[in-house]
Write a structure and sequence with these properties.
The structure holds 2 protein chains of 2 kinds. By secondary structure, chain A is mainly beta. Chain A folds into 3 domains: 10-127, Methylamine Dehydrogenase, Chain H; 131-262, 7 Propeller (Methylamine Dehydrogenase, Chain H), CATH 2.130.10.10; 263-281 and 295-315 and 325-447, YVTN repeat-like/Quinoprotein amine dehydrogenase (Methylamine Dehydrogenase, Chain H, 7 Propeller). In chain A, 2% of the residues lie in helices and 47% in strands. In chain A, the strands form 10 sheets. In chain A, strands 29-28-34-33-32-31 form a 6-stranded mixed β-sheet, with no helix packed on it. In chain A, strands 1, 2, 39, 40 and 41 form a 5-stranded antiparallel β-sheet that branches. Chain A is globular. Chain B is mainly α. Chain B contains 26 helices and 1 strand. Chain B has helices at residues 2-14, 25-31, 34-37, 41-53, 68-81, 97-219, 246-299, 306-323, 325-328, 333-364, 366-373, 377-416, 418-485, 488-502, 504-514, 519-524, 528-533, 537-544, 548-553, 563-571, 577-584, 590-600, 609-617, 619-623, 626-647, 655-674, and one strand at 226-229. The longest helix of chain B is centred in the first third of the chain and has 123 residues, at 97-219. The chains are: A mainly beta, B mainly alpha.
């Protein structure tokens, strides 16, 4: 593991280009593009206002910067630094901006989800899509980038519109059987659109692109329902995390539940490996009233393997408040679909890793602090996580490790991002970022 | 009793009428009822007391001297009135004391009777009183119980009433609760509807506002809104945009169709995999099932209930099905469902049963299973043999130790205890004498046998000579015939046939040599003996199976004479020292090693008469215990072998002869050893 020096960044706006060659980050109103290998500044673009959003185009040639306050979008080209493009939504306002799958169109969402405007960089044409639904994930491109599925709301009813991305023409418009649709997503093989209901009701629906309902699934009624949904990269499994602290995994042929994983507070499974992070705190010296801060002392941590029955740390959620902190809120499949990690929100320090071949719990990581961010290596079954401390943690089937980020001063890792080739890890502090390079050999050694 | 007699005497003395009195008080007493008189003195005293207590006796007398007659009359009247004979003679109206006595006796009897009756009645009354009291008690008890139960019932009734009241209250509550729930539900629904309505209203408003905003935005066109771009871009990949709008839907449907096709393909692959799996299961199960059926037949496990029988019938039906199963399995599932799944289910059931059976067998007898499971019987046998041998070795070692101990003991005894040795000497003397006699007898027999043997050898030699002469003549004759009859090319053929003709005399013994014991059988059950024999089995075998012909044709070897000895060895129940030496490898006597297996071979047609006769004719040995006997034999074994070796001359003596000779030898040797 090699760590780069610290770079400044704001609002966690750091992104790898899809081809993995560049790393873009925003500092206030400046956009800095670095060559990833050398971390030398390749380009430096100055925007009109503080950047609130950046996104690479799919071909890694352009970057858009969203300045929501001003309702402005600026697009920069890496190949032609002189080329400029500015989109002004003006009084309509701006809440969201994104690239289309082809990287030649920009979709901006106006304030109040009034409309989505499609700006073509090819012929300057502008298309409007009215009535987009303001929801968790109302917009999804098909994996091949040909179609866009969009959730709409008209006449107090949900609709799904399918657009052809080449001309932005509506090709299909259908009404799903939802009361209040909250998200939709194409399967990675592009055959199915998964649609799920708001948390008031547990309901998941599967549609083909032409609007035929393939199957519906409801696990229970009269309780808070779905919290998170994830497709496996092979499209063979659909994992649904819900407020009842369970993950249900459906198969892609019969759409029946394969397995239902509960997240109990007491673990008593002999086959499960339980790693617990143990932080050795510095002893108080005479006259000291509190332990030295991180500036002075870095408390190392290690993983212990627990055996027998383990009581997992859990917090009791306040059920009288909206959006209670309970249930499976984070889950994702590993790139080879062999593993799935979940985080039950009322056990924020615990990460559960389930194996898909045995359909059983495989590993449990008990962290000292609540987990902030987890990410799978895009190339192999390996994940990195951070808990807002100065450490980064990694797990692979071979083992678990915790690494102190060797940087002077405070560096509390709030977010981790993998480079597209899985060779490096981007660590984000609220104000800084650092790159952690993992060469193959070292990766093997660490495991 | 005395009182009574006194009373009579007194009466008699006072009476004026001629009364014949009983002088003897004994007699008088005997007149009274035996019940009263035979009792003890106490009884009679009671009587007297009664008499004394009678008002007649105490002052106010009924009768006294003056009114005796009146009294008599009165009595007479009274008596007649109660149906007794009158006291007076019927014709003379004279007082008859006999009558009086009779009457009195009658009266007494009646009195006794009535007394008994009275006692009985009293008893009965007593009993009844007892019963009554018990009944009363019972009644009291019952009444108490009744009271109690009544109380309880009352309590229960009260409780029931209370509960009923409570129940009523609760049902009322429930009802009200239900109503409340219903009300609340309706309220909730109401609110929900209202909420939804409000939501819709809001949403519509929202929508309207959005529309308005939209309108305003479009109206306000111009100014800043829009895109400023320094140059248009190429499409990614350089392709141009297409204009045909109708094709877009086509594209969608194409993608949908292709998705479906891909999915169908996937499903086909999955389906074919599953079908293959089904076929595999079918075939596997069938194979298992057949074997299981065989096994069940073999082991005769009697679980053949009716359902199983029918199941087996189906299996046999299915066997024919399964021959075409791979093709059948390509049928749609609905066709397969009936037959295939049923058959598979049946098979599974069978398999389960079979497994259960197996488990049963395991628990019942491990041996059966072992036999079944053992890969090769020979290996098992070998290990078994080795085990046996090890056990034997141990046993024999123990025996040797014991024997040595015994010998030591006996030696010590001889040395120390002169008395015992003296006794032993006498025994030995006796034995010696016996043996002497027997020896003489056997010497005689031996001489006889020698004579016989010589005669036989002579006869055999003669026969041999004659045979040779005959062969010669035969050869000559054949030669002549051959020379006379055949042309030249037939000559060789004739010679061959001639040779073949001569052959049987040589071939016959060869075949006979092998016939008695089938080699295959031996191979199947290799005994310890065979293991030992293997190196020299061929050389020793001919001697085993000799026939008279064979002895004559081949140069006779007298090894056959060892067979009785071998037999003896084989049949000895207690192991001999020779055996022990063999096992322990102490003494490497090749002859013995060769001999032993022969004796173990059951195919030898020689009876162990020598051994048995020896046992029978030596009672002294038998009495001294088998160990001693065997030890005696043990010591003689090797010299005897040597003697046999020296004796092995050309001989064609029959089996009987050998047996006799051996018997003689054994005994003589044994005697030597004893001496």
């Amino acid at each position: 593991m090699n760590f780069s020096e610290l770079f400044k960044q704001t609002a966690y706006l750091c992104k790898f280009s899809p081809d993995g060659r560049y790393l873009a980050n925003a500092v206030q109103y400046r956009l800095i593009v670095r060559d990833f290998k050398t971390l030398q500044i390749q380009q430096l673009f100055t925007c009109l206002d503080a950047i609130q959003h950046i996104e690479w185009s799919s071909d890694s040639q352009f970057i858009l910067c969203g300045m929501y306050k001003r309702g402005l979008v600026q697009v920069w080209s890496l190949e032609e630094p002189e080329w400029t493009c500015k989109i002004d939504e003006g009084s309509a306002g701006l809440v969201d901006v994104r690239w289309s799958a082809d990287g030649r169109h920009i979709l901006t969402t106006a304030d109040f989800h009034l409309r989505i405007t499609v700006w073509s960089l090819i012929n300057k044409s502008v298309s409007y899509i009215k009535y987009p639904k303001a929801c968790q994930k109302g917009l999804s491109f098909s994996p091949d980038g040909k179609f866009l599925a969009l959730a709409e709301r008209r006449d107090c009813k949900d609709y799904i519109s399918v657009f052809v991305c080449s001309t932005w023409q509506l090709v299909k418009h259908f009404e799903p059987e939802t009361e209040d649709l909250t998200g939709l997503e194409w399967s990675p093989n592009g055959r199915v659109i998964c649609v799920w209901e708001s948390c008031l009701q547990y309901k998941i629906l599967l549609y083909t692109a032409d609007g035929r309902c393939i199957d519906k699934f409801t696990a229970y009624n009269m309780a808070l329902g779905i919290k998170s949904v994830a497709w496996s990269p092979t499209s063979q499994f659909l994992a649904i995390g819900s407020y009842d602290q369970k993950v249900r995994i459906l198969n892609h042929l019969t759409w029946k539940t394969i397995v239902e994983h509960a997240h109990p507070t007491i673990l008593n499974k002999p086959k499960v490996v339980i790693y617990k992070e143990v932080v050795s705190k510095p002893q108080l010296l005479q006259g000291e009233t509190e332990a030295p801060s991180q500036f002075m002392y870095r408390s190392p941590s290690r993983y212990d393997i627990l055996e027998d029955t383990v009581q997992l740390p859990a917090v009791k959620p306040d059920l009288n408040r909206a959006n209670p902190k309970m249930g499976v809120g984070t889950l994702a499949f590993s790139p080879d679909s062999r593993y799935i990690y979940t985080r039950n929100d009322n056990m924020p320090c615990v990460l559960w890793i389930w194996e898909m071949t045995t359909l059983d719990l495989c590993v449990v990581l008990i962290q000292d602090l609540p987990i902030k961010c987890v990410g799978w290596d895009p190339c192999q079954a390996r994940l990195a996580l951070c808990t807002g401390s100065n450490k980064v943690y990694m797990w692979s089937p071979a083992g678990c490790l915790s690494v102190d980020v060797p940087i002077e001063g405070t560096f509390n890792v709030q977010s981790v991002k993998w480079s597209p080739n899985g060779e490096a890890l981007l660590l984000l502090d609220p104000e800084h970022m650092a790159v952690c390079f993992l060469s193959e050999n070292e990766a093997n050694l660490s495991s | 009793m005395d009182g009574m007699s006194d009373f009579l005497v007194r009466y008699m003395s006072h009476s004026d009428s001629p009364v014949s009195s009983y002088r003897n008080p004994q007699q008088a007493s005997s007149l009274f009822s035996p019940d009263v008189c035979d009792g003890s003195g106490g009884d009679s005293f009671n009587m007297v007391n009664e008499f004394n207590s009678d008002p007649i006796m105490n002052g106010n007398l009924f009768c006294h001297k003056k009114n005796l007659d009146e009294c008599l009359h009165h009595l007479n009247q009274e008596l007649t009135s109660i149906g007794l004979h009158s006291l007076f003679k019927p014709d003379s109206q004279v007082f008859d004391p006999v009558q009086l006595v009779n009457c009195t006796y009658h009266l007494l009897e009646q009195f006794q009777q009535s007394k008994r009756v009275r006692e009985e009645l009293e008893n009965r009354i007593h009993l009844l009183e007892c019963d009554l009291s018990r009944c009363k008690e019972l009644e009291q008890n019952l009444s108490r119980q009744l009271n109690q139960s009544q109380q309880e019932t009352a309590q229960v009734q009260e409780r029931e009433r209370q509960l009923l009241v409570k129940n009523k209250i609760l049902t009322a509550k429930l009802k009200s609760e239900k109503e409340e729930v219903r009300r609340l539900q309706s309220v909730l629904q109401h609110r929900d509807i209202q909420h939804k309505h409000e939501l819709k209203k809001k949403e519509r408003e929202h929508h309207k506002l959005k529309e308005r905003l939209h309108q305003m935005l479009t109206d306000k066109k111009g100014t800043k809104i829009g895109m400023t771009i320094s140059g248009v871009l190429q499409r990614p990949g350089g392709s141009r945009g297409t204009w045909s709008g109708s094709k877009q839907e086509e594209e969608l449907f194409r993608s949908v169709v292709s998705n479906y096709e891909a999915k169908t393909k996937e499903l086909m692959v999955e389906n074919s995999g599953l079908r293959k799996c089904l076929i595999d299961i079918q075939t596997e199960l069938l194979a298992d099932n057949v074997s299981s059926a065989d096994e069940t037949n073999l082991t005769n496990i009697s679980l053949d209930d009716l359902p199983q029988d029918t199941g087996q019938g189906e299996n046999f039906k299915n066997e024919s099905d399964s021959t075409v199963a791979p093709a059948h399995c390509q049928l749609p599932l609905e066709f397969l469902e009936g037959t295939l799944l049923k058959s598979i289910n049946d098979k599974c059931r069978h398999l389960k049963k079979y497994i259960k059976n197996l488990e049963k067998q395991k628990s019942e007898g491990l041996k059966l299973v072992d036999k079944k499971l053992s890969p090769s019987k020979e290996d098992c046998k070998k290990t078994h043999d080795i085990d046996k041998l090890m056990r034997d070795v141990k046993r024999y070692k123990d025996i040797i130790e014991e024997q040595e101990q015994f010998i030591q003991d006996s030696m010590a005894k001889k040395n120390t205890d002169s008395h015992v040795s003296f006794l032993n000497e006498s025994e030995l003397e006796e034995e010696k004498e016996n043996l002497e006699i027997q020896k003489k007898l056997f010497e005689e027999q031996r001489a006889n046998f020698w004579k016989e043997r010589n005669a036989f050898t002579e006869a055999a030699i003669r026969l041999h000579k004659e045979r040779k002469v005959f062969e010669d003549t035969k050869a000559l004759f054949l030669k002549d015939q051959f020379l006379q009859i055949t042309p030249f090319n037939n000559k060789s053929h004739q010679e061959e046939t001639g040779e073949q003709g001569e052959e049987p005399s040589h071939v016959l013994p060869e075949t006979s040599r092998q016939s008695p014991c089938s080699i295959g059988k031996q191979m199947q059950t290799p005994s310890t003996g065979e293991l030992f024999r293997k190196p020299s089995s061929v050389s020793s075998e001919p001697a085993m199976n000799e026939s008279p012909d064979h002895d004559q044709s081949l140069s006779p070897v007298s090894e056959g004479c060892e067979t009785p000895e071998n037999q003896k060895l084989g049949h000895a129940t207690t192991p001999t020292t020779v055996d022990l030496y063999q096992f322990l490898g102490i003494k490497n006597d090749k002859k013995l090693k060769e001999n032993r297996p022969k004796s173990a071979d059951p195919n030898i047609g020689v009876t162990p008469s020598g051994f048995l006769s020896k046992r029978n004719c030596s009672p002294s040995w038998a009495s001294s215990g088998t160990r001693r006997c065997t030890s005696a034999v043990n010591h003689t074994r090797t010299p005897q072998q040597r003697a046999q070796d020296t004796l092995s001359q050309p001989s064609n003596i029959k089996m009987l002869l050998f047996q006799h000779r051996n018997r003689v030898l054994d005994l003589s040797d044994g005697e030597d050893a004893d001496q």
